[in-house]
Amino acid sequence: MKIVFDFAGVLFRWQPAAMLQRELPHLAPDEASARDCVTQIFQDYGGDWGDFDRGTVAVPALVDRIARRTGLAPADVQRVVDAVPHELQPLPDTVALLRRLHEAGRELYFISNMPAPFADHLEARHDFVRWFRDGVFSARVHLNKPEPAIFELAAARFGGTPGELVFLDDHGPNVLAARALGWHALQFSSAAQAETDLKARGWA
């Protein structure tokens, strides 16, 4: 069985509301206002940010587009973009799970919606990314989850049939999209839960 990981929210911390409270306290002084800012800036990872994930817009144009659309100051938008790599800190429990799977000889892969500069940053900074045999970053293939095409491309690259692929992702629509294509997919809530589910099915 080939085990495929998502990155943000699974292998790396992704708590955008908390990040905005830290980075833009004048705009997001509390949880409710932070959630509103998350909606404005990230648009549920569609729109402007979705194009950034897809690799079809670079940072300067992204900042300009978000600032024009939301009325936020360009400097504030730039501050958020600059903060994302620092928000994407490894989750120790998931890294430990990844290590156990790697040491057990499991075939490890990833699919991540990730803009190109952040993908470059993660690869350069974290040695454990090398434990993956291969992976797909959205910006490098110009496809985003949950589009079926990104899963089809990944399956072709990783080899085997969809039934030989198990996908761990924290976002429900991505899990459903993978299942619709015949993958095994588990919705991730914690490393402990994921490991229990993998072991129960004989995959870890």
Could you characterize the architecture of this molecule?
Helix content is 54%, strand content 11%. By secondary structure, the protein is of the alpha/beta class. The protein folds into 2 domains: 2-13 and 89-200, 3-Layer(aba) Sandwich (Rossmann fold); 16-87. Strands 3-2-1-4-5 form a 5-stranded parallel beta sheet, sandwiched between helices. Helix 1 (16-23) packs across helix 2 (31-42), helix 3 (47-54) runs antiparallel to helix 4 and helix 4 packs across helix 5 (74-87). 33% of the residues are buried.
Please state roughly what percent of the residues sit in beta strands, choosing from under 5%, 5-15%, 15-25%, 25-35%, 35-45% or over 45%: 5-15%
CATH C-level of the largest domain: Alpha Beta
- CATH topology of the largest domain, by name, is Rossmann fold
Average pLDDT, rounded to a whole number, is: 97
Q: Total domains, how many?
A: 2
Largest sheet: 5 strands, parallel
Output the helix-strand order: EHHHHHHEHEHHEHEH
Question: What's the short story on this structure?
Answer:
This protein has 204 residues and is of the alpha/beta class. It is built from eleven helices and five strands, in the order E-H-H-H-H-H-H-E-H-E-H-H-E-H-E-H. Helices cover 54% and strands 11% of the residues.
Break the fold down into its secondary structure elements and pairings.
Blueprint: E1 2-5, H1 16-23, H2 31-42, H3 47-54, H4 59-70, H5 74-87, H6 92-103, E2 107-112, H7 116-125, E3 134-137, H8 138-141, H9 148-158, E4 165-169, H10 172-180, E5 184-187, H11 191-200
Parallel strand pairs: 1-2, 1-4, 2-3, 4-5
Helix pairs in contact: 1-2, 1-5, 3-4, 4-5
